[in-house]
TrEMBL record, chain A:
The lineage of its organism: Bacteria, Pseudomonadati, Bacteroidota, Sphingobacteriia, Sphingobacteriales. This is Carboxymuconolactone decarboxylase. Residues 30-70 form the Carboxymuconolactone decarboxylase-like domain. InterPro entries: AhpD-like (IPR029032), AhpD_core (IPR004675), CMD-like (IPR003779), Uncharacterised_peroxidase-rel (IPR010195). GO terms for molecular function: peroxiredoxin activity.
TrEMBL record, chain B:
It holds the Pfam family CMD. GO terms for molecular function: peroxiredoxin activity. This is Carboxymuconolactone decarboxylase family protein. Residues 21-83, 90-153 form the Carboxymuconolactone decarboxylase-like domain.
Length: 186, 181
C-alpha cells in the first residue's frame, strides 16, 4: 500500500506524478527530452539504459514498464531480457555495451564511473553527448526508482497494464496526457 | 578533468548545465520547485538540509557543500554546525523531532526506495509530518540521488576551498535556481 493516498487506478509512477503535478512537470520534461528528444542513440537504446538501471535497483514497476517499452520499440523481446541478464554477452553493439556498463556504474554511485569505462565507450565510438546522456538517464532512473519504491506505490493488478503503458510511452511519450488519466478508471 | 569536453571551466553541475542547456532547464526547474517554492510547509532551510544530507551520504563533495552552505545560510548555522548535523542529526539539538524523522526517511531513500519502512513513515506522522512533507522529502532525496550521480558520474571539478561555497550561498539564495550567473 502506498505511504500516502494515491489514485488507486494509477499504479507505479503515474499516481505520484498526478499527486504532485507541479514537481511532475520538470521530471516529465527531462524524461521526454532524454528518452524521446533528438539523439544519436535510438529510442530503444535509451529505453535499454532505463531498463538496466531499474533492474539493478530492483524496481519492479519501472523495470517491467521500460522493458515493455524497449521491446515494443525494438519489435522483439530478446534484447532487453539479455541485457538484464548480462550486458557483456547481450546482442547489442560494443558501443551500447560500454554505455550500458557506464549506466550500471552510475547506478552504483557517481564515483564508480571510472576513466577506463569512459575510455572504453569513446574507443567504441561513443560521443561526449552520448556519454553525458547515458549518465543522466541512469541518474534520472535512480530518482524514479527511489520515488516509486520509496513511496510504496502499488503494482498493477493486471499485468496487461504494462502493455497499455508501453504503447503510451512509445506513441505519446512522457508528457502528461492532455485529457488526464480519468479514462483509465475501470 | 571532467570525463567529457564541456568547453567551459564552470564547477560541478554548472559546467554540465552550460554544456547541455536542454537538460539544464528541467533540472533547474525541478530544484526550484522542490527547494525554493514558497507553497511548502517545510522551510527552504529544512529542504536544503535534506539535499545536503543525501549528498553527504552519496559522498558528493560539490553538492554537499553547495547545499550545506545554503542550508546554513537559511538556518543561521555555520559550516561546522552543518557538518555536525550531517554526521549525527539525531543528536542535533537544533532539529525538531519531525525533521529528524524526515531525515531518517531521506537516509533510507539514499540506500534504495525499498529501504523506506512503514514505521519510518508512521514515526514522521506521529511528529506531525503531513503527506505532502513525506512526499517532498522522498522526492528531494531521490532527486539528489540523481544530481549527485550526474555531478560525480561525469567527473566534474569542484573547488576544494569550502569557503567558496559559503561565500556564494547568499547570492544563490536570492537568485534561486532559475537565474544562473
Amino acid at each position: 500500500m502506498p505511504h500516502i493516498p494515491l489514485e488507486s487506478h494509477l499504479p507505479g509512477i503515474t499516481g505520484l506524478l498526478e499527486y504532485s503535478k507541479a514537481t511532475a512537470q520538470p521530471i516529465r520534461d527531462l524524461t521526454q527530452f532524454l528518452l524521446r528528444g533528438p539523439s544519436s542513440l535510438t529510442e530503444a537504446e535509451r529505453e535499454l539504459i532505463a531498463t538496466v538501471v531499474s533492474h539493478g535497483n530492483e524496481c519492479t514497476f519501472c523495470t517491467t514498464a521500460h522493458t515493455a517499452a524497449a521491446d515494443l520499440l525494438a519489435g522483439e523481446a530478446i534484447t532487453a531480457q539479455k541485457v538484464k541478464e548480462n550486458i557483456e554477452t547481450a546482442p547489442v553493439s560494443e558501443k551500447m555495451k560500454a554505455l550500458l556498463h557506464i549506466a550500471a556504474l552510475t547506478r552504483q554511485s557517481g564515483k564508480s564511473v571510472s576513466e577506463e569505462a569512459i575510455a572504453r565507450a569513446k574507443s567504441a565510438g561513443a560521443t561526449d553527448v552520448e556519454i553525458h546522456d547515458t549518465v543522466l538517464i541512469a541518474a534520472l532512473f535512480c530518482l524514479y526508482n527511489r520515488y516509486v519504491d520509496g513511496m510504496g506505490t502499488a503494482l498493477p493488478a493486471d499485468p496487461a497494464y504494462y502493455g497499455v503503458l508501453a504503447e503510451r510511452l512509445v506513441n505519446h511519450g512522457y508528457t502528461r496526457l492532455p485529457q488526464g488519466y480519468e479514462h483509465l478508471k475501470k | 578533468m571532467a570525463h567529457i569536453a564541456l568547453g567551459n571551466e564552470l564547477p560541478g553541475i554548472r559546467g554540465l548545465m552550460e554544456y547541455r542547456p536542454e537538460t539544464a532547464a528541467p533540472l533547474n526547474a525541478l530544484a526550484e520547485i522542490l527547494l525554493r517554492d514558497d507553497n511548502n510547509s517545510l522551510s527552504r532551510g529544512e529542504r536544503e538540509l535534506i539535499g545536503t544530507y543525501v549528498s553527504y551520504l552519496n559522498d558528493c563533495f560539490f553538492c554537499q557543500n553547495v547545499h550545506g552552505a545554503l542550508a546554513g545560510h537559511y538556518l543561521g548555522c555555520d559550516i561546522n554546525q552543518i557538518d555536525a548535523i550531517k554526521a549525527d542529526f539525531m543528536g542535533a539539538g537544533e532539529l525538531s523531532d519531525k525533521m529528524k524523522a524526515l531525515l531518517t526517511i531521506a537516509g533510507s531513500v539514499q540506500q534504495g526506495g525499498k529501504a523506506v519502512t512503514s514505521s519510518q513513515i508512521s514515526d514522521a506522522r506521529s511528529f506531525g509530518a503531513t503527506d505532502t512533507e513525506i512526499h517532498d522529502t522522498v522526492l528531494i532525496a531521490a532527486s539528489f540521488c540523481m544530481f549527485n550521480r550526474y555531478v560525480d558520474g561525469l567527473g566534474t571539478l569542484a573547488p576544494s576551498d569550502r569557503q567558496f561555497y559559503v561565500n556564494r550561498a547568499p547570492q544563490r539564495a536570492e537568485d534561486g535556481y532559475l537565474i544562473l550567473r
